[in-house]
Design goal:
By secondary structure, the chain is an alpha+beta fold. It contains 9 helices and 15 strands. The protein has helices at 3-9, 60-72, 90-95, 111-115, 138-146, 163-177, 181-193, 243-254, 320-333, and strands at 20-26, 29-36, 38-40, 45-46, 53-54, 199-200, 215-218, 221-224, 239-241, 266-267, 274-275, 280-282, 285-292, 295-302, 307-313. The longest helix has 15 residues, at 163-177.
């Protein structure tokens, strides 16, 4: 195991600075697990393998898994119109003013469209009123979207990455299951797999064990920038977890339980890369990025080599994707 080489790649995360945790799993077994730097600068708490980072858009694979679980249970179909569960959007759906041929109805937005970023829904971040300071919850995003009378394009006609879609998917999970999104994840995804301390975090309702806080560089130091107005939505980025828990998630993925999520569904803006459900799908690999206020993360899986690499960080800079790919190269070069 090229431990020294990996430590060298991560040297900028070592010391009294916002840190990182790296996980490498091969053939279902942990072959490298190491933390660097600090999870909490103010209290001088070092990062460990049990540090819980905000996953940002890595959350989307869990939101997709929740939808697939409900589909397996017969509680929904991926081709259901979203108005089955979100009737608040019924009026907006009928008034969508996207270009269309006369007499041809605008296609319904379906759950599959949300999963694959092909709904055309507006980015909710662009709809937040100027001067707003209160954090948005998932239901607030629904209210912003129900007021819209158009979309970027006819649903299903093209790909455009959409946090809005995955926020709505969390609401679909709630209404199809009759449970709060966080409770459904815990009871139907996290606990059965073995992810005992992972949480879709809600301020005042839940807590994050061994929590990492996010930071941004300021001059020669660092400033805590852990939350923004969009940091409280759940379906697009609200999960906190540790690499200790992610070991169990990667094993569950290796078991084939959620193989539907890694089937190529739609071409993306990147050549030869498709999107599945919560995963990018390329030649011989599946991956996803995660970036939000104070955190940058990346996970990649190489199924033919039975290899997965995770890099979680709690700072507003850096290139975890490049680091993960470099770590994978080091591992694979050893044979």
């Amino acid at each position: 195991m090229p431990r020294q080489s990996i430590d060298g790649l991560m040297r900028d995360y070592s010391g009294n600075v916002p840190g990182a945790t790296v996980l490498v799993v091969r053939e279902g077994q942990v072959v490298f697990r190491q933390s660097y730097g600090m999870a909490n600068l103010e209290e001088r708490v070092a990062s460990t393998s049990d540090t819980h980072y905000r996953l940002a858009s890595l959350t989307k694979q869990f939101t997709a898994a929740a939808i697939l679980t409900l589909a397996e249970r017969g509680r929904l179909s991926l081709d259901d119109p979203i108005t089955r569960f979100l009737p608040e959007l019924s009026v907006a759906q009928t008034l969508l003013s996207v270009p269309a041929q006369a007499g041809v109805p605008v296609p319904h937005i379906t759950i599959r469209h949300l999963l694959t970023h092909t709904s055309g829904l507006y980015d909710y971040e662009d709809l937040i009123p100027p001067g707003a300071t209160k954090q948005l919850k998932d239901i607030d995003v629904l209210h912003l979207l129900e007021a819209q009378r158009s979309t970027y394009f006819p649903p299903g006609s093209r790909y455009r990455y959409s946090n809005s879609g995955y926020v709505l998917l969390a609401l679909v999970v709630e209404r199809a299951s009759g449970q709060r999104f966080a409770d459904f994840l815990r009871q139907s995804i996290f606990e059965p797999i073995g992810m005992k301390s992972s949480v879709a975090f809600e301020e005042g309702i839940s807590s994050v064990p061994n929590r990492a806080y996010g930071y941004s560089r300021e001059g020669s130091g660092w400033r805590r920038t852990d939350q923004s107005i969009t940091s409280a939505t759940l379906g697009d980025g609200g999960i906190y977890t540790s690499v200790d828990d992610l070991v169990f998630w990667l094993r569950a993925l290796d078991s084939g339980r959620f193989d539907a999520a890694i089937q190529p569904q739609v071409a993306t803006d990147e050549p030869h890369v498709h999107y599945g459900f919560g995963w990018y799908v390329g030649s011989g690999a599946f991956w996803h990025h995660g970036e939000t206020m104070g955190f940058r993360n990346f996970v990649i899986r190489f199924p033919d080599q039975h290899l997965a690499v995770v890099v979680l960080t709690n700072r507003n800079e850096g290139t975890p994707r490049e680091m993960a790919l470099a770590i994978a190269d080091l591992i694979l070069s050893e044979g």
